[in-house]
Amino acid sequence: MSEPVVLKGFGKGIAVILDNSCDFDTICDYFKQKIVNGKNFFSGYEIPIQFIGRRLNSYELQKLIDIMKTFGGVHDIIFPWDEINFHHLVPMSNESDEKKMLFSTSSKDAKIYKGTLRSGQVVKSDTDIIIIGDVNPGAEVISANNIIILGALRGVAHAGASGNKDAVVFAIEMNPVQIRIANIIARAPDEQNQEQERVPEVAYVEDDTIVIKPVSQF
């Protein structure tokens, strides 16, 4: 690429093409300058974004979102979900590409919410939800489809609230008070091994029961 960051419009949204050969700090510098120069174009309540050309882990994605909100006046960001590979968001172990997770839907957009949800806070959406942060006890996330938590789930997550039993709940650290998928409920055990190593896990429905497994076994 001639530039580390290239912006292109698509419909009402923006495609951000990132050079995979550049270090991430260089990407951030160029991206910030692009946002500053085009601030009037970016400012608005919510804007669809696609990041193309390189895989982004959760830290990198959050850094780019911060730049857009700080220097571009963007209030909310929508990711067209059919363009996002799950392993672009979460750094995985050295597995083959076939074993890396991929969640996609063809007709819905994913909503991104940045920050920790504290007791009493509720986030609802009729689309997939990605939480960049923790969900603390007393907080609740409700989605008609999938719930992706790039942090710790310690509160309540209700995926597939529309009745979709194919929905899943993913968390970097899975320690919920309660998980619901469609009309099926699972509660956390009374006693948990605090010394057990935490690994990213996925909750899904199998034989009308909610099963929680490490990502590597899903």
From TrEMBL:
Function noted in UniProt: Cell division inhibitor that blocks the formation of polar Z ring septums. Rapidly oscillates between the poles of the cell to destabilize FtsZ filaments that have formed before they mature into polar Z rings. Prevents FtsZ polymerization.
HAMAP family the UniProt entry points to: MinC
Subunit structure: Interacts with MinD and FtsZ.
Single Gene Ontology BP annotation: cell morphogenesis
Keyword terms of this UniProt record: Cell cycle, Cell division, Septation
InterPro entries: CAP/MinC_C, MinC, MinC_C_sf, MinC_N_1, Septum_form_inhib_MinC_C
Protein name: Probable septum site-determining protein MinC
Protein species of origin: Caldicellulosiruptor saccharolyticus (strain ATCC 43494 / DSM 8903 / Tp8T 6331)
Family named by the database record: Belongs to the MinC family.
SUPFAM superfamilies to which the protein is assigned, alphabetical: Cell-division inhibitor MinC, C-terminal domain (SSF63848)
PANTHER family: SEPTUM SITE-DETERMINING PROTEIN MINC
Domain Septum formation inhibitor MinC C-terminal: 112-212
Residue ranges occupied by any Septum site-determining protein MinC N-terminal domain in the UniProt entry: 5-71
Gene: minC
One matching Pfam family: MinC_C
